[in-house]
Amino acid sequence: MNVGGVRLAAVPAAIRYRDRDDLVLIALAEGTRCAATFTRNAFCAAPVTVAREHLAAEATRWLLINAGNANAGTGARGLEDARTCCRALAALTQVNPAQVLPFSTGIIGEYLPLERLTAALPQAIAALDENGWDAAARAIMTTDTLPKIATRQLLLGGQQVTLTGIAKGAGMIRPDMATMLAFIATDATVTQACLQRCLSQAVDGSFNAISIDGDTSTNDACVLVATGTAGNPTLDDPASTEQGAMDLKAFQQTLNSLCEELARAIVRDGEGATKLVSIEIGEARTAAEARQVADTIAHSPLVKTALFASDPNWGRILAAVGRAGLEDLDIDKVRIRLDDVLIVSGGGRDPSYQEQDGQAVMAKDSFSIGVDLGRGRSRARLLTCDLSYDYVRINAEYRT
């Protein structure tokens, strides 16, 4: 699990929570390369703005993460608070403030408790440890019920390479670039441009393909750092040799797999969720319209409450397909399945469908909704969950 050149610490700073860790430091070896993707929500949080600026300006040496306070909707003061945190850590570690990337998650619209946060930094620096992954994964949690962590190893040029990542997120999940918060590290040697392309590709097929409640967070960020301590031949894109191309493909596949595991864990841990549902759209004209249909199904409250009730209400799914905004959609060509059970064809209930078969599928805690549009060859896949009583309770009580 450990990644050479990466040390982590988690300490209590009483940012919002009592008697638990809520501040994380991640220290990166000199020479580490850093790639990131950030929220596309126009109402982005102050730390997102500062992290973007710092990433473009300097080589990253520190990640500073707090849970319990999003520092979003805090205006000019919020920006200055984020910069103050970076300056405080930089002064303690003899780096430039722009070498610190800040991240926050939690309540929107409240100012950071700067004194408590900065007072906890010396303790965090003293606690840095290469074995700190699990503690860090727990400290960044908010409404999560369990930590989310994944690790992989592979050989690149005969050298063993490790990738380890943590993530948090259980609500306000409809990433439009990345994830809620995710931090992934590898000891591989990778060029900066290649690292960013690898991350973007991995994110598109994982964190950008999940939805719990249709809300894109103000604080979304996904970071990939490469310390280069493994000693593998440098990965670049395009690769200059056949072996380099093979290594790059293997690295990308491994990164994709790790991100998919973390993304799946986020949906599985959705606020109040009882079911994990894969929405799989096929026979679309384009991948974009396939995703459009998947999004419409995943964000339908009527579909999501039927999922919670284990009710194979195919009319709700068919209605979502119909209102997805596809031009010239021939509803008679649409086929809908629950796992392998065909429930809709020819514009209505399939003649072979038996209600008990659909109920048996939906009674499971994990299944798929398959929709073939009958108009092309493109596909899309989106992971989502049901909408339960507990989702309403958790979000109604969030600030109380």
Order of helices and strands: EEEHEHEHHHEEEHEHEHHHEEEHEEH
Shape, principal axes of CA atoms: globular
The total count of helices amounts to 12
Mean pLDDT, to the nearest integer, reads 92
Helical content class: 25-40%
Describe what you observe in this structure.
The chain is α+β, with helices and mostly antiparallel strands and 400 residues long. 34% of the residues lie in helices and 25% in strands. It has helices at residues 46-57, 75-93, 114-119, 121-126, 133-139, 192-204, 242-268, 287-298, 301-308, 314-322, 355-362, 389-396, and strands at residues 6-11, 23-28, 33-38, 62-69, 100-107, 148-156, 159-168, 181-186, 221-226, 276-284, 335-338, 341-345, 348-349, 366-372, 378-385. A 6-stranded mixed beta sheet has the order 13-12-11-14-10-15. A 5-stranded mixed beta sheet has the order 3-9-8-7-6, with helices on both faces. The chain has a 4-stranded mixed beta sheet with strand order 1-2-4-5. Strand 4, helix 2 and strand 5 (100-107) form a beta-alpha-beta unit. Helix 1 (46-57) crosses helix 2. The longest helix has 27 residues, at 242-268. The two termini are 37 Å apart. 51% of the residues are buried. Mean pLDDT is 92; it is low at 175-179.
